[in-house]
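Review box. Two proteins, two foldings.
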Amino acid sequence: MRVLNHSFLACLSLLCGLTAASAQLAPTWKPHQKEPLEKYDMPPMYIFRLETSPRMISPHGPFVSYQANVDANGQNIIGDAANECSISVDPTNPSKMAIGWRQFNNVASNFRQGGWGYTTDGGVHWTFPGVLEDNVFRSDPVTNSDETGTFFYLSLLQTFCENMYQSTNGGQSWTELQPDGLAEGGDKQWFTIDKTTGPGHGFQYQSSDGINCSGNGVQFQRSTDGGITWQAPIVIPNEPTDGTLDVDTNGNLFIGGEGFSPFYCVRSSNAQFGDQTPIFDQITQVDMGGELSGGGINPAGLDGMLFLAIDRSGGPTNNNIYMLASVAPPGRSTTDVMFVRSTDDGATFSAPVKVNDDPVNPSKWHWFGTFSVAPNGRLDAVWYDTRNAANNTDSQLFYSFSTDAGVTWSPNVAVSNAFNPFEGYPNQSKIGDYITIVSDETGGNVAYSATFNFDPNPPAHHEEDIYYVRVFPGGQAPTPTPTPTASPSATPTPTPTSTPTPTVTPTATPTVTPTPSVSPTPTSTPTATPRVTPRPRPTPHPRP
């Protein structure tokens, strides 16, 4: 095992790079078209960089976004890029959080590394110690926390193999749990941790999109020793990819994703038993109201992926299974945020509900939709939204919540200022493939990418940076959920730092009472048999 502790360093590796090249909007790529690996083979080129500017603090109404990818002095690093961020929160101390992201020190290159930052004061101030491993290509970061507050960071190498890292000090330092690549795995990987008290407690499960370092097919892997060793991969029936995993209170594992057209929810009831080979005993086709898309507003990337999460509140909605994604409805090239739920252990799902409450407009984007389930059962959803943009591309982070298992959603509210998603690209023309949120009893902790900072070097443009914002129902008003079970984490307040703030786009703050967007009628969805007929498999989306 390798132990990394950069907390005492002055971020020398992050103060290197070339002046950013101008951002170029790449042509729209075709779904499932793979970028050649040789595009990433160029070696990194660095010069010592001293240019900094004040870190960005960007308030929008009661919501305040704080920049996370800052140097050792808490300043913005001019000319770098950071995107595709995944946040974890210590459940024993919600003031401690960590974010992993793709770090580009030189935006003229596709070379990126495993960046991370941590906070100990609820997200107001962040420390960016460095990268997981200097001068090693890493991508697709996914982080998670177990119930004790131990953080994990799964990172994809250029070989499409992976490593799992562990932190026991709130993300301040990380231990590599195996030599490079020995977590095997593949592209667009995601993982979850069994936090139940059953036989699978502490097991880690991951899936990937079919471009693997260990064979073909959308693969599943299991670790029974906390991410140190990983058992041989198993091909998942119906190939649910570009999605996530979760575990219910009975220890059943569920994987959600798009099977290269239909969506599926796949269950394994025996993955929790370490002496058994996991099998997938239930496969359910799910109507999400559209398909995943790529390109357009995010030229070289996805416009959103599928997120699956399970209610473990212990209340009447316990073990509900929820799926949310930004999808392109039939006949559309732009996306809406759509949501479905299952109340019968994934056997059937409801009709899709549109979470974004603006009128249908084929020119507007609602992209990078993601959500999480609070310990009290509340659902929190965030996404990028262009409804207020005259050019239909400038985006704001929007938020909505549900206290009735997703039957109705609160009026949508913008929680960030507008930004241009086409500026600040590294050589790869996208702002990543996803953003993430982790909820607690009173709100949600969001990591997202935006281009608020301005790079004064020619050609001048804004930079892609990582931001943290806390979202919560009703703005500054108390949460409408009456049964909090733990002390709420503090809502960040702006620091007195004098920092340039982008022009605010006025957006109304929602009332506390949720308003339904659609009243869905639960619809039975046929359950497929585990034995599926092999079919030609399209080439996956471009990665990593």
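Next protein.
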Amino acid sequence: MMIPGPPPGIYAGDGAAGSDQRSFNAPDLPPTAPPGGETVVTVVTYADFAGALRDALRDFHSADLLARNPLLRGGIGNLGRFAGPLDLKALLSETVGTLFGNPRDEKLRRVIELTYFQPAPKQEVVADRLSLSFGTYRRHLTTGRDRLARWLWESSRVAPIQSELPSAGWPTAKGEKPEDATAPSPEAGEPAPPRLSVVILPFTNLSNDPEQEYFADSITEDLTTDLSRITGSFVIARSTAFTYKGKSVDTRQIGRELGVRYVIEGSVRRSDREVRVNVQLIDAETGAHLWAERLDRDLGDLFSIQNEITGRIARALQFELAIADTRRLTEHPDALDYILRGRALAWWKPISRENNAEGLSLFKRALALDPRAIEAQIGLASMLVSRVFDFWSDAPDVDLQDADQLIARALAVSPNSAWAHYAKGQVLRAQSQYDDAAIEYETAITLDRNLANAYAWLGRCKLAIGSVDEVIPLVEYAIRLSPHDRNLAAWCWQVGAVHLLKARADEAVRWLEKARSAYAGYHYIHASLAAGYALRGETKRASAALGEARRLSNRYASIAGLKAAPGRQLLEAPRLGALAEATYFAGLRKAGLPEE
């Protein structure tokens, strides 16, 4: 049985008013036609579908129970109405292997496989075998099961359920058609392509070695998966996109044939020591080039290079697609307009009190027009938490409570939204619940492996709970994904802080100076620099840095006052206390900070 790539369109909830995206909670599957020709209407809600899937997983080793599962009566994915228990078992096991095939989803795959596909061990035994706390194990189990349910639900909704088992391939999606079908003309009354609808054409292999074709294809496949996870995106399946491989077809024709607004094309050239990837974003209506990027990398760990390239491209395209889509809006502002403008302030504009206040206003106006807009709920929650982190809030507890309620609403409708889980992690981190925040960031990463902020703040949580050795790889990966991020100063500080705690003063100062260059308004950067300079014997520079920290904050009057100040991640974790005393506080004392 063939289990191909992701369904052509992945939708993450209700979204903004006026968008073309469908809700996962739409009530009905398409009716099926039995062999006799009479119509039998199958009404299946998502809740029923998810319940049937849970039962199928639970009854995986019981053929008699599995045979009575509703999924076999209505058809699911590329199973027909005449499939049996063995077909359903094969579909479930192979889909899990494909859906969680990325190394970063390894935990989810192992949790699902050991819980359901192995001979029924107790859940406590599975958690112990995976070296997970039982609470963490249960969260991974729920996340993995929900993602599997929504994946299969969407694939079943993409096209009518087949009346017989297909030989291979993925169900045909709206906008896709057999090779012998003719392209619709605009005059035929075809609906407008969905917002953020895109096809990633197979990247061209420009290497002299034809055996390198697989590398270009894998870049294409990874981008297809990554862009499918963008909220509100409609991404044409790999199986259809690859029918254009090696063909010279006008991008406007491709847009008409597939019903998409954007086309992404690119090329890969590998030499003995280097790989170069070019990528372009094209408006399928006009043929205009909207954005282009070239990435050159030295060959080393090929898998890591491929992950970095696709991550960087996917993150950039997420931003450029939003910009391109904004240009299509009408002159009259609506909820979507406010969301896109607020998102730009929330994620890409410089951090400032003014930008935060404007972002709050934009997301509130979006919710006034569409109270169900998930992106507005997530955006508003994120801005409220940012206001707390940056000490601009007049009522931090109220802001965090409001943010938590907004995220609860978003997750209730869209439990697989990476940004919703990320925002939940932000709320928990602001409440100093670092272990729970780390779980939310990890969940966000499993849903969107290119969410740079989640990697970085997961690193902050690891620092706060004392898992020092795990911090730097996470933060450095975030910086590789988003090297010009507006949070770069805080991220560089985290790396510098770990080097400082490990008594690597030279590396600490190098990273802390990077942090200061990115943004000089954080007192803790200057305080850490003061300690680093002092440990290197640079007394004058240490004194100057301490003076700047004192100018920015009143917490540096004494060592005792600093230890009593809020937000002391370097102090509260037992494993950090001894390290901080020997490095951070020792350096501050040398820089001139008194004990009392």
